[in-house]
Amino acid sequence: MRSLTAFIAILLSIATLACAQSGTKRYLYLSMPDGAQEEGRSNPPGILIFDIDNGHKLVRRIKVPIFAEGLRGFAGNLKMHRVYFSSTNHRVGAFDLETEKIVWEKTYDAGCDRSAVTMDGRKLYVPTGWWYSGDDSGVLIVNAETGELVKRINVGPQAHNSLVSLDGRRMYLCTRTMLSIFDTATDRLIRQIKDVGEKGIFPYTMDSQQRIGYICLGDHVGFDVVNLQTGKVLHRVLAGDAPIPHRTHGSALTPDETELWISDQVGKKLFIFDATKMPPAPKGQLELSQGGHGWVSFSLDGQYAWTHTPDVFDARAKKRVAILKDENGKPVSGSKFIEVHFRDGKVVQVGNEFGLGRK
To answer: Whole-prediction pTM value?
Structure first.
């Protein structure tokens, strides 16, 4: 037994040494200020970089003056080692994570909300905005390398959050109470799921196989469960002992897809559900230190949960383990952030701002 213990200790030491020698560093990139919330802002505008493996301590701030317009989206791409930002002033831009320079930036007439980029880094989908309800409301398709507008697809009013699936094959776009699914190779509409999310679709998430989607409700804290392959609404699940009459803004699956977390930003809570059951069953809740826009996401390894607040949670132990603070010790927060891994000055991994299943 003693020899086995020693052998295991040696293996752990080797693994730790190999990890250290790899030189991979994990960071959380938080863009500032969030155009959708006042809470947690810190000047000057730009990107705050936090060391995930060192207690989420601030490493430094990259000043990006144009961010003063307020961020509406912050999507990353590994192939191009860029993040694509959108602002309240109808601006979209590409920021190179390695050179720390803006590569291009453009403005569009209708506006631009939370955008999504294809895995090959060639195409950017830009929703026209929750504030826009014109007949041509929908999504702009933009050349992600140059920012040039390729075409515009009319979908529905208040086109809002968009995401590209982790396999790169589908783009999801929510409008007022409808989730639309597109083929990224052809931009052909595949399916529309109507009458979900109560009065408006807010954040949503899905499993890695894109079978089940979880869509936040607009009038209560809870979510709709939908079959993404048939378009059928399977369940409506409400949080709490009694219905909580305000919107939900934030939903995320743990990477192993065992839990669904949703944000009650007004009530300053996170509700946790057992996603191995159908419908998902209540499992617990966590208190948040502030209100705000609402958002939930997880680190790629599932260890940490990040929200629209300065709170960093150990997702497995269900406890707060860090507070994001700026260079002056002030708690900072927002809902536009992403995980980035570097090795020898090069980007080697980029997370997703949505809390998508990765099983």
So the answer is: 0.93
